[in-house]
Specification:
mainly alpha
Length: 49
């Protein structure tokens, strides 16, 4: 949690708000890949990439 606080403070102080969508997209991509590995839908999701 310390890392997230530091990241938030960095973005707030330096006005780096363009990082927020980038971080969200990376998190969603990671969740999608984790879901793809643990389900039967993995073969269908991998065709997207």
């Amino acid at each position: 949690m310390e890392f997230l606080k530091d990241l938030w403070n960095f973005m707030k102080e330096r006005k780096k708000w363009w990082l927020v969508p980038l971080i969200l997209i990376l998190l969603l991509l990671g969740v999608l890949l984790i879901f793809a590995e643990s389900s039967a839908l993995g073969s269908f999701i991998y065709t997207l990439f």
